[in-house]
Amino acid sequence: MALPLPLPLLSVLSISAWSAAGYLAYLVLYRCFLSPLARLPGPKLAALTSWYECYYDVAKSAQYVFKIKEMHAEYGPIVRIGPNDVSIADPEFVDTIYAPGPGHKRDKDHEKNKALGVDSSVGGSITHELHRRRREALNPFFSPQRIGRLDPELKSRTRQLEIIFAKVKDDGEVLNLSDVYFAFANDIVHNYCFGNSPNLLGDLQLAGIRRTNVAAVLGSVKIMLHFGWLRDLMQMLPPSIGSKMMPPGVRDMMAFRKDIRAQIDRILAGGRALDDEKERPPSIFSHLRDISLLPEPEKSAQRLEDEAVLMTMAGTYSPMLSLVLAHYHLLAKPEIMAKLRAELDANPSSIKASQLEQLPYLSGIIQEAHRLTFGLTGRNPRVCPDETLVYRYRANNMAYAYVIPPGTSLSASTLLIHTDESVFPDPWRFDPQRWISDDDQTNLARRRRSMLAFMRGPRACVGMHLANAEMAVALAAMARWDIKLFETTEEDVAFLHDYHVLCPRLGSKGVRVQVVGPRSAEE
Question: Annotated binding residues, as ranges?
Answer without folding.
Answer: 461
